[in-house]
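User: Second chain of the day. Same drill as before.
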Amino acid sequence: MVAWGNAWLAGHVGLDEVADRVESAGGPTVVGDVPLRRHLVDLRGDRLSEFRLALPAPGDPLGLSGPPEFNAAAVEARQAVIAVLPERRLGLVPFVDRRGSSYVGVRMSAHEAGPVRHDLPSVAEADRELTDAMRDATEALAGVDGPAPVRPDRLGARGGELAPGYPARAHRVAALAARLATVVQLAGERGLTSGQVTARDAALRDLDRAIRRALVACCHAILEPSPDRP
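Assistant: Same format as last time:
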């Protein structure tokens, strides 16, 4: 939603494409009881300027600046969208919306959000952090006996696809971060002993943080000057 929403605000894609892309990932999407398309139109009418991404984890409120109610909901969901308006910020937190026996979609709860965080990494900074974390995790995991590791280059990227208008470096880093996120997920499913789990978790904690920082930086890249943007 952040990547395609920002591309829409910058004039690279249309409203229908934004809604289609968002709903292709999670199903029909509503904000409160308002369909996504209508909510986006309403936000633009309120002079929406940009979307910001938060990918927090317990102990690491990445992208969040309060208030506590919004932070708690975002940490529980491990993700949130922040719509930046002239006089306020609106925080949107997604959760699974099930109705009856067959309907599955996404419902986003709306919260007042704090100021935009300006201490988040640039794509260049996130790229370096991700490279370093990947190297360190690879070295640490090499000493953990257990099932064979999964190589990132053999995985397709799940998510991480940016919209038209984003810098080439952001596309590359987002794709790598998405592949590595799959590695982190699979590493938790590979039947290690308790001692191996301890070593694995220590190795992957910094990598997970670097992945989240990279995805946030990439989704914000269209908002910042970039030397590799045409």
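The CA atoms of residues 23 and 213 lie 24 Å apart.

User: Great, on to the next one.
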